[in-house]
Queue: 4 jobs
Job 1
Amino acid sequence: MKELLYLKDDQLKDLIEKLFVSYRETFSDSKKILDRYSIGLAHHKVIHLLSMYEGISISELLKRLKVTKQSLNRVLKDLIKLEIIIFKKDDQDTRVKHVFLNEKGKKIFNEIFNLQKKRIYNALLNSSSEEVINFDNVISKIING
């Protein structure tokens, strides 16, 4: 364990590659579903966030995605055309719009999630509880810088 305290560049490069590959594999599982609905990863990210934060505001969605208004607008327009999302104005401030998945959107999310869940569930199932906790801690530290 002591060698982990002084990771060499080659070890860090290997870790970064594993992060790339795990991301690629996790999201390639859902590629067929995304293709079936003519949507891409940007759409999937929005659908995923809408499933987690039902009724999220546009400004909060922008903050979480860290994208431009223009990029988000393009994705939202596509999701509207495909009849996947709905908007509701805020009761207190009508300038604020909240975004929701409709039934079709929830169905698409569940199809994708169930595929991704298999890969992640199997990895967690084949890991000790200590490994799972440590992985979660490390990944959180990577996310939070």
Job 2
Amino acid sequence: MSFTDLMAGPPPTNLPVDPAVAELDGGSAPAAVVRNHPASPAAWAALAEQAVEQGADDVTVYAYSRVGYHRSLDMLRRNGWKGHGPVPWEHESNRGFLTCLALLAKAARAIGETDEWERCSTFLRETSATAADELLDA
């Protein structure tokens, strides 16, 4: 007889391979990749990261990362995520979502949206402590 551990949390959610990653790795511009793959968390994360690197206004970074975050939530739900539980940084395909969430948190803090910073940074830490350590504490 087997028993279900009622105290265990939900299983980790691992997103499928994101086809945008190959284009990004091949040197395609993030804006072009977003046009080819508008639902891609990795594409939106790359666009937001590029905006940071180029010194774009924090509102621009906030907008790109928010779009990526919301597209990520749609994808997570389609892959069994129930609104909570681990989304491991160690699974490469999860990194677009986690990066968007971290960039959204940082941009929210930069524009003075403290509640959003706290919500997003807490959500990131609860979803993947490794990602929070890698992306927020760096």
Job 3
Amino acid sequence: MTTITSERNLSASLPAINFNTLGLMFITGFFATVAFDLWGQVISPALGFAKLSPHGLAQSLLGSLGLPNTAFAGYFVHFYIVGLIGYPIGWMFIFAPLWQRVVGDTHWFIPSAIYGFGLWVFAIGGITSLAGLPFFLNFSGIVWVALIGHVLYGIVMVAMLKLVERQQNS
């Protein structure tokens, strides 16, 4: 099996495209999305900060593209398409191999946080604009909660990849 992450090495090579990789994407994406939503929809509002509504952003994007934009469609896109598939693909097949090639061997924590930051720029800077919403949502409180949520997503996703790999290697 191809190594996805290790203590010091992010990605020796691209993972094989098979059911194991798909399973890894779903497992790691699931835990990372749960952490993201727990932060953005439970912890942040309990601390008096904004409450995230990522399914609302997905609904806005779908509507701007002329696609069905029901609440179900928004949740489906946020949780399944983005959380379980899109963001893990971005790490496993684009960011981690690029990081490895440009920076080399590093511990997984820093690049996973940087990846989360990049997800935030992509989602809040890019997708909001495509959805017809203000650029970076006018830097309102929700933007900063989303920043923490996306960085948390990146860290949890890669930590889960590392945990699964450690279990497979023992």
Job 4
Amino acid sequence: MKEEQRKRIVDKHRDSLTRHGYHPNALYWSSREIQEIRFRVLADIGIGCGDSVLDVGCGFADFKSWIEGQGVPVHFTGVDISPDLIYTARERHPECELLCGELSDFELENGAFDWVVLSGAMNEQLHDEGEYARRQIARMYALCRKGVAFNMLDARHLRAHDLQSVDPLEMLAYCKTLCPNCELHDDYLANDFTIYMRR
């Protein structure tokens, strides 16, 4: 993304963390319950005990806490653009590899992780017709051995000037150009959808 867009996101999260501290509101989730509904749908792609997981836009690494709370220990790596969120995540999870930057900043090997997940990290309005999101998805798919699960805002139910929402059927069609085994899940929240891409 452009440098000014990146700076805007970093500054936005710094301000939100100052106001809310360690809380889902600092990540612009309306509640922990809504955050965890999305986590459950991501995990249901088939993440199992001992699997390696890359969480793109990991925030506080709450997905690790949540999935291990379900009795599914994983080898977790997180990446987030916000140094402030990564700092807090490292305090909470010193055992994890947590990287500060965009996914494209790091030379990660293709197939390095069993699963790649992303929750909420493509909701920022970049005014690029979804081009950045498509690049992210293609890179995430290259990095996985088993599959990718990500969510986005559903343009059929939500359109906001400051948030990026997309048509889920159009995004599903794009994902099928990368991966023939894709599934759309849009029955868990009114304004959200998740796509699974399985190898």
